[in-house]
Amino acid sequence: MAKKPRQQAHRGPRKAPKGVAIYHDMKVYENFERCAHRLFEMVRWAQEESPGAPRRLYLDIQGHRNSAGGYDRDAIELMHDFGIGHLLRFLTELSTPLLRVRNDHQCDDLPDFLVITYPDDGSDYGYDAAKLSLKPREKQAEERRSKPTLKAITEYLGLTEPACLICWKQPVERCHVVADKLGGSNDVRNFALLCSAHHAEAPDVADAESFWAWVDYAELRDSPDKWLNAPAELQEQLRKEGVRVGTPRREPQSFFSAVKRELKALYGWTDAHFTSAVWEELMEEFHTVLDSATGRHFSIEKKVSTYAWAYDVARRRVAGETGPGQGTVTHLSPPDHGQGPDQEAPVP
Q1: Burial zone of 172 (CB within 10 Å; 0-12 exposed, 13-18 middle, 19+ buried)
Q2: N or C terminus of the chain with fewer C-beta within 10 Å?
Q3: Model's pTM, two decimal places?
Q4: Higher pLDDT pick, 286 / 346
């Protein structure tokens, strides 16, 4: 039989790669640094998975309000300074609660890593380990004698119903970020919603951002528990996608072993920190921090989270690291600056 002539394939213009939509909700427990790193990693992942595809980033903000009802410094810096000033170069579109911006010249040369530094402009960044003073997130607290209602905190957090910020369990308790006995206010911004177990576990410290950092850490640690009440078919689908459902039971350990684990997981300690420490000096500073900048909640004599924070602040005091620290950031400035991705410059 004669072969049927092959038809030439139609060689029209190549289809553009499908776009990638990236969504992130800046949680109340995320600060600028942690959220910026996560956005950077998501955009980098999208670039690696779909090179050349248009990337659209949709950003929501939970909480992060100032005394006037607008967004606080971290949220503004994230949306404007980081989002528009740096990340937009690598996106086709950036959408935030305040604005939507397009970029018709998306770049695909995103750097491999991002390191954030604090500007040397006298701004109040980080916790000053030398002063051990009260450091709330709200700069001008609303003066009120009673705690805000559960409904008011739920609405501030943008939740449809009250649930633990860490595990989503109900019922919840109103948890001071900085305890009133340490000078914390009854401003709605000084409250979190936690289940009784996580409320009892949360740190009682004078630094609000350290409290929120612990909530962030605990949420990542315990997030698989969020799916325990989901329908069985959804749990099965999640497992097929590699999502953990339910947190494995933690083995019993001594109090100091638990503190050591948290120092490594949350504060970046290594074995070298433990072996090189001059413990007599460290313990003296530890008790200074414990007496001056921590409290005791629920009559719990010792908390792992509080002790871990106090040890880390004590280490910084011994080492003379009283400020928030300095570093460099892989440069992400807009194209018109004429600087490439390998150059470095400070970014707030």
Answers
A1: buried
A2: N
A3: 0.85
A4: 286
